[in-house]
Amino acid sequence: MRRIAERDAAGFVRVLDDGHLAIPERPGNKRIDSLRNLMLNPEIGLLFLLPGMGETLRVNGRAVVTKEERLLAPMAVQGKMPPVAIVVAVEECYLHCAKAMRRSGLWDPATWPAPEKRPSAARILSDHAKLDGMTPEAIALRLEEGYVKRLY
Fold this sequence. Notes:
alpha+beta; 2 domains; 5 strands
C-alpha cells in the first residue's frame, strides 16, 4: 500500500476558544448525511484516538455547520479551504481510561485478524451500498483514485 504524503497536520481539529472546536470538512468524507443529521439534531459525541495510546479523549456537545470564511480560512490545506466546518460547543470533555482499548487489542498487531480473513473496505462498501455494477474491484479502483487525486 502506498503511503500518502498529504494529510492534515496533527491538531487539524481547531480549538477556537475554551468552549468551542472546529472540524473541517474535506473532499472524500462523503458524509453529507452526517451534516444533515447535525442540522436536525445538533447533539454530537467525538472520540479522539492517538495511535498506540490506550486512553481516549471524549468530547460531547452541540454542533452547527458553518461556512464562515474567517473560521474556514485557517483550516486550508494546499491552498484549498474546506467548504464547511462543524463547530462544536463543548458541554463535556473527559479522558477514558485504557481498559477497553487494552481488552480489544486495537493497537496490538498480534491480535489482528490475518489480512486474508478480514474484508477489504471495498467489500464492505459493496455489501453495504449494493449499487448496481459496483463490484468490490470497481470500488477499490475508485477508492485508490480518490486517495491519490482528491485528498484536498
